[in-house]
Amino acid sequence: MKEFLKTLGLTEDNDGSSTGQQGMHNPDQHLESHSPVDGALIGRVSVTTPEQYAQIVGAATAAFADWRMVPAPQRGEIVRQYGQALRENKDALGRLVSYEMGKSLQEGWGEVQEMIDICDFAVGLSRQLYGFTMHSERVLHRMYEQYHPLGIVGIISAFNFPVAVWSWNAMLALVCGDVVIWKPSEKAPLCGVACQKIWAQVAANNKLSEGICSLINGDYTVGELMTKDGRVPLVSATGSTRMGKIVAQTVAGRLGKTLLELGGNNAIIITPSADMDLVLTGALFGAVGTCGQRCTSTRRLIIHESRYEEVRDKLAAAYGQLSIGDPLDEGNHVGPLIDTDSVNTYLKAIEGIKAEGGTMVVDGGRIDGLGSDCYVKPCIAEVATDSAMAQQETFAPILYLMKYSTLEEAIAIQNSVPQGLSSAIMTTNMRESERFLSAMGSDCGIANVNIGTSGAEIGGAFGGEKETGGGRESGSDSWKAYMRRQTNTINYSTELPLAQGITFDLQAI
Fold first, then answer.
1. What is the rounded CA–CA span in Å between residue 410 and residue 389?
2. How far apart are CA 117 and CA 234, in angstroms?
3. What's the pLDDT tens digit per position in 15-30?
4. Model-level pTM?
């Protein structure tokens, strides 16, 4: 463990790197990062004070004045260098993600690969920040739209993807000409410090201002400094729906912009024609990957009555083969939950399932003797289609099974929850797949056919509807969220005609 921390320049006391600004030490308050893998103290990170935050915003504001004037392809070159630095540190950073957050090592490496991929995407995007031209109704006039950077982009990220989601936002914002202030989750602060250290070296090599990309640390009160700050025109927040509603109301109160990625309660519909190999792989990884702590984790299987027993029994057998333990051991499939609070939430959810009459197909519970109190058993429960527990997002490896008889019924069940992030259908029937993807089908921001609900690629815009928040990050044209749109009209005639044929005769005055 110490070797990969040393590779990333991390020590037990990381005061100087917690803000991204030199001399911004706060010796009085610290976050302690304890690994859910073995309970050990990994390190301490200083908490950003309001005074330090004010200095950081001041530095970011000054940096924006210069950064926005750097040609976008040159900004892309800086992001390219950051991507290369991530390649060089992929093993160590992936191990830190796994150790501090608890996801499997393969998933930790995969998360860093997502960062690398988004850097590549952003580099190409830096030469494609296009606008539009349109014909004017007035003679000898030209109209077009263009995009300009917003300014400071505040990013609040969650523990489950402690580095990738920041990069989705930051790399696009940077090539757009914005500057970034990031508040990582207080449950995985060292991952943020490591990313900042890697960025700081790239910035120093290119003689860039530290204010272009900064880090603040602390609990929700530190995040509030950004959400209430009128100098931060956009706040991108990832987390629970409860948190997102608070952020949205606060930022809207000052007429700022938000980009929200919130809860998910994702389902796979399994049809009579489904390929069972695809079902088992997609459902199993979707339900237990990251110990059920992905916003895209599969939480519900909506199974046709003709395949129900088959799917239930084969899935239960597959759960029996899962290896649970230290996520840095590549032989294990499932690591721990993030902390004991999450364990207690998981245990209460199981009690709720039983109280409403659900049946446990695979029993859950805490697992002792694995190094910490954060390990639990992935479990499966049979519930009614109107189950109150299945309407909620429990951020843990609990999978609900329910039956349906018609596709219309299945889609209605799928769409009945408040969240609208990811969804999938397993079918070899083209009509079923097209119906699922149509306006009459899934109401989620992501709808897949013959793959699971998790594992999105960075090329497509990521996000969801309803209580998921409506935001879109990563690929496609999501870059527009980080810019302001401007319509321009140029008159190259010797007269000044008005739109809509309006006349304004000065000689009559």
1. 18
2. 24
3. 433 344 433 445 568 9
4. 0.95
